[in-house]
Amino acid sequence: MAFMQCDFFSETLGLSVSMNVIVPQKTRSQIGMEGKASADRHPTLYLLHGLSDDHTIWMRRTSIERYAAEYGLAVVMPAVGRSFYTDAVQGAKYWTFVSEELPALARSFFPLSDARDANFVAGLSMGGYGAMKLGLRRPDLFAAAASLSGALDVAELDADRVTMSQAEYRRIFGSGEEVRGSDNDLFALAERLSRSSGPRPKLFQCCGTEDFLYSHNIRFRDHVRSLGLDLTYEEEPGGHEWGYWDMKIRRVLEWLPLQR
User: What is the maximum span of the chain, computed from C-alpha positions, in angstroms?
Assistant: First the structure.
């Protein structure tokens, strides 16, 4: 695998931003790891960070490079700050950045596939929300979306305020009532997708039973199941921590509908 630290300018955000990118490299003599790579453009996983982290965190806390090498999978890890992958009410347009500009730029910089069935998204906590939003709102772009311990009921975060201040929440989303039924409400997005005749992504969701977001995950799981969407749900003992996410990202890669 090749690992690149990429700094570039975003026209959408109006500032310089960063992403880390892993690109497959076929190897036979590398000690301890054998890499795979397609002869064409690579299948790609967009891997999203949580609220208190940045684009470096997956490389620092997990062995994602080693895990992805087995599958010949490119991994794009962008920095989005504390944005919740959202076009903020008062602030930058991070949803537009991550759903439109980022994939186009990443493909212009690196040999990444633009085929829907070769593009996937996953993330943890805030990034789990972002991944599900990308899957549900842009099913034309992503064949699968996975949430690890996701903050999936953001309307309730306004009431709970367990991860951010009320002022920060209001700058991003407005109020919880404004979220309900909007393009930022995963429950509403799932309902819209269930009524759509277009493509539907495969969905994966997991959460530790001791996680403070467990109740949010149960509500989302039950809602998605009631709509008949293709959801794989897993839970086991675990909290909101990297030992759990390192274990589950390996499971996500195993689950992805990659052409093998």
Answer: 57
